[in-house]
Structure to design on (537 residues):
């Protein structure tokens, strides 16, 4: 019976953790939309939304509420099932990716330690990559099912872009894995806590990874799938109401999760910089809380950089995008990988 | 042939290595946008803040009264003739005995309408008026739900009574006083 009790406790713990991470993802995504509009405003010498609540903090709720009350239109010529599946898939994939990210130091209680991570599987980072690859189906299915030329073009663009940029992304990642020697997210973090952040040793790798993350999230300068001016919002052109909201929201959740993954892989995860926090002798829950806030600070910084880039540089042309991906980033990532391997071999011998 | 002094020749030289990396120029651009986050905002937050009007701003029309509160307009129709947009219509009436506290002269406008959708706010009516009865104020026509709401009658146009409602009168008068060309002339 003891085993059953432990299992029950384990399930409860995970359910609470999953619910809070999904809630957190939604909350952060909501306020990233506001931050996006605010920062866009500031960068263009405007104020940004400031009418809904003080400083516009109710603006995301107003936007969401508006989307719920909009008329829902399904094009007659569309494939109904796939038309519904598209945004659902985009949202599910965006949410699933966050399972393997360690959000903070484990909470140590009398009965044992509770990791602030839904699943600390051995192949953690591979899960992220495989799930992100499925994310392309959200765009493809949505674009194809709309039965619209623009949507289809955008879906094709999006698919080829995501496939092209996953390659240099993984190649940049391999150099990191050479160093950490593990695919497990928690071990990648503990390696960085002991040996310093990966960005110090892999600046080029981080740069390539970051550029590819921009492309994977369909963010400017790589937002070709939803190019407003020539493709008319691309793959979600035919979508309305909350189905459109799902696509837009999934984009922000993707941004949040990819920031979290980058923070984990390159910026030391929940590691507090410049100090050795193990010597402080803090209460475990307090330490977990602080490490979680540090993680969130890193994620917020990366989100800010995402937004900052979007409101600075214009979109790439399609051939420039492919040129950059295949002829610049992949050779660069390969070079980075070979160089890292050579240096590691030289250091170990 | 050079047409202006501002023409700049386009630099078509091939990109240098630093430029072909894009990154340095992107960093420069990001520095510019970051600096702009802290600059003064150009926005005028409308209902709270208002853009100051120029001293020659021509807004909504006001039908003027003299210092005793009598309407200046004699319904001569010169404003309607002057109006290039044909926005003004009026009907004249004769002043009856006992109405001399209401109308300054023996003929007055029984109906005076300006269609604000036609009006181009040129101010020619103000120039044409020999009695200083109409002038353009410093407010503009508020939004309305129907076209009908933009046809302003005497109700909307007439300035408040200077003796009975002195505050509203001063407010409607604004900073710009109508020229006193005819205002103090004795009634003929």
């Amino acid at each position: 019976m003891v085993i059953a009790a432990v299992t029950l406790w384990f399930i409860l713990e995970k359910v609470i953790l999953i619910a809070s991470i999904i809630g957190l993802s939604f909350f952060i995504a909501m306020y990233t939309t506001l931050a996006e509009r605010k920062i866009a405003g500031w960068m263009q010498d405007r104020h940004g939304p400031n009418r809904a609540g003080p400083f516009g903090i109710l603006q995301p709720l107003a936007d969401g509420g508006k989307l719920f009350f909009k008329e829902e239109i399904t094009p007659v010529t569309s494939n109904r099932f796939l038309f519904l599946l598209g945004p659902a898939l985009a949202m599910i994939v965006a949410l699933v990716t966050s399972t393997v990210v360690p959000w903070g130091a484990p909470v140590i209680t009398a009965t044992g330690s509770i990791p602030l991570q839904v699943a600390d599987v051995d192949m953690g980072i591979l899960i992220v990559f495989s799930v992100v690859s499925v994310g392309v189906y959200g765009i493809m299915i949505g674009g194809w099912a709309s039965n619209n030329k623009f949507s289809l073009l955008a879906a094709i663009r999006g698919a080829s872009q995501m496939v092209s940029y996953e390659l240099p992304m993984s190649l940049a990642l391999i150099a990191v894995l050479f160093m950490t020697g593990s695919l497990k997210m928690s071990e990648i973090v503990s390696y960085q806590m002991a040996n310093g952040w990966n960005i110090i040793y892999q600046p080029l790798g981080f740069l390539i990874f970051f550029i590819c993350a921009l492309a994977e999230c369909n963010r400017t300068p790589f937002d070709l799938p939803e190019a407003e001016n020539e493709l008319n919002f691309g793959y979600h052109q035919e979508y309305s109401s909350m189905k459109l909201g799902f696509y837009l929201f999934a984009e922000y959740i993707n941004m949040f999760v990819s920031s979290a993954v980058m923070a984990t892989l390159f910026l030391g995860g929940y590691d507090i910089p410049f100090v050795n926090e193990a010597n402080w002798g803090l209460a475990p829950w307090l330490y977990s809380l602080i490490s979680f806030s540090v993680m969130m600070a890193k994620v917020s910084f990366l989100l800010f950089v995402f937004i900052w880039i979007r409101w600075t540089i214009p979109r790439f042309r399609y051939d420039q995008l492919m040129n950059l991906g295949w002829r610049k980033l992949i050779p660069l990532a390969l070079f980075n990988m070979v160089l890292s391997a050579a240096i590691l071999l030289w250091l170990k011998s | 042939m050079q047409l202006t002094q501002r023409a700049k020749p386009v630099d078509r030289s091939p990109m240098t290595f630093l430029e072909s990396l894009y990154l340095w120029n992107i960093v420069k651009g990001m520095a510019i946008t970051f600096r702009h986050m802290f600059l003064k905002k150009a926005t005028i937050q409308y209902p709270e803040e208002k853009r100051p009007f120029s001293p020659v701003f021509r807004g909504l029309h006001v039908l003027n009264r003299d210092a005793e509160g009598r309407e200046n307009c004699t319904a001569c129709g010169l404003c309607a003739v002057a109006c290039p947009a044909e926005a003004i219509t009026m009907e004249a009436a004769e002043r009856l005995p006992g109405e001399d506290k209401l109308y300054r002269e023996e003929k007055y406008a029984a109906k005076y309408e300006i269609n604000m959708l036609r009006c181009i706010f040129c101010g020619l009516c103000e120039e044409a008026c020999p009695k200083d009865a109409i002038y353009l104020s410093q407010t503009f026509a508020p939004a309305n739900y129907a076209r009908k709401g933009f046809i302003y009658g005497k109700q909307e146009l007439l300035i408040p009574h200077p003796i009975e409602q002195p505050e509203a009168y001063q407010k409607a008068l604004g900073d710009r006083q109508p020229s006193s060309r005819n205002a103090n002339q004795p009634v003929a």
